[in-house]
Amino acid sequence: MNEDDVYVCMICERAGTDGIHILSQFICSDCEAEIVNTDVEDDLYDYLVMRMRVLWLDLIRMETDQPPGSTFS
Ligand SMILES: [Zn+2]
């Protein structure tokens, strides 16, 4: 047993051991299943999107690791 294997889910904020890691974030298996099964028109989807924006911001930061003022072309 290793306590380091317990992570806090970025969606429900509960501690868990089963789930997926994306960048520095953790999503528990419950929420992972929820995301997969949630319809875009569902109210829950908006909530999940809101929670996952943190993750996307991380991704964007990584992909656009350039000084400000870089031109888009
Ligand atoms: Zn969760």
Indicate the percent of residues in helices: 40-55%
Catalogue the ligands: zinc ion
How many structural units, i.e. domains? 1
Structural class: alpha+beta
Question: Unreliable segments (pLDDT under 50, ≥5 consecutive)?
Answer: none
Order of the strands making up the biggest sheet: 1-2
Q: What is the mean pLDDT? A: 82
Q: Count up the helices.
A: 2
- Major sheet: 2 strands, antiparallel
Rounded Rg: 15 Å
Outline, from the CA principal axes? flat
SSE pattern: EEEEHH
Can you put this structure into words, describing what you see?
This protein is α+β, with helices and mostly antiparallel strands and 73 residues long. It has one domain (3-63). The protein is 41% helix and 16% strand. The chain has two helices and four strands; from the N terminus they run E-E-E-E-H-H. The strands form two sheets. It has a two-stranded antiparallel ribbon with strand order 1-2. The protein has a two-stranded antiparallel sheet with strand order 3-4. A hairpin with a 2-residue loop joins strand 3 and strand 4. The longest helix is centred in the C-terminal third of the chain and has 21 residues, at 43-63. Bound molecules: zinc ion. Zinc ion is lined by residues 9, 11-12, 14, 28, 30-31.
Short description:
By secondary structure, the chain is an alpha+beta fold. Helix content is 41%, strand content 16%. Strands 1-2 form a two-stranded antiparallel ribbon.
